[in-house]
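Batch job 17 of 40 flagged for manual review because the log was empty.
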Amino acid sequence: MKFGIVLQMKSLGLVLWLNIGAFGLIIFLTQILCEGPKRAEVIGWICMAFSISVFVAPLSVMGQVIRTKSVEFMPFNLTLTLAFSAVMWFMYGLLLRDVYVAVPNIAGMLLGVLQMVLYGIYKNIKTNGVTAETKLPTVVKVDQEMPTKVNSEAVTVNIPSKDSKNGEAKDGKSLKDPQINSQV
């Protein structure tokens, strides 16, 4: 229980640092180091870098899709929505002639289309009769070797015959009893 609280506090600290501390540091440094139109240009480049990193992040998932031939880790709805969003922001940046909006969304459009193509390629691939989307990982562990020689002794199994009146065998045992007399 205590470990979970510590982990939550570390996560909260990281979120606060990234959302407040990093943002404040960017504002502070651009106010001190840059003046006038140069300040807007530096902030534009910083925003462009963050926007491109958002679109590049799914590359690891794309690699996993190619390795496993399974699209279970890449939801199509999210991919489609991100690609559509990139197209809309690109059009907005293009109409305003804003390089800082248009350029990262070109990368977003290309990566979104690439993800959808990957989804189309790997969504119906069958592995051992099971589609890759629903295949569960299989672990096979071999502890012993299989015997190479089979004993050829005869096995005799006595199956009692059924008495039609009361559902019992002629020897008095119930047929529902899972034990069967066998002799080896």
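Reviewer: the log was empty due to a logging misconfiguration, but the result itself is present. The two ends are 57 Å apart (CA to CA). Unflagging and moving on to job 18.
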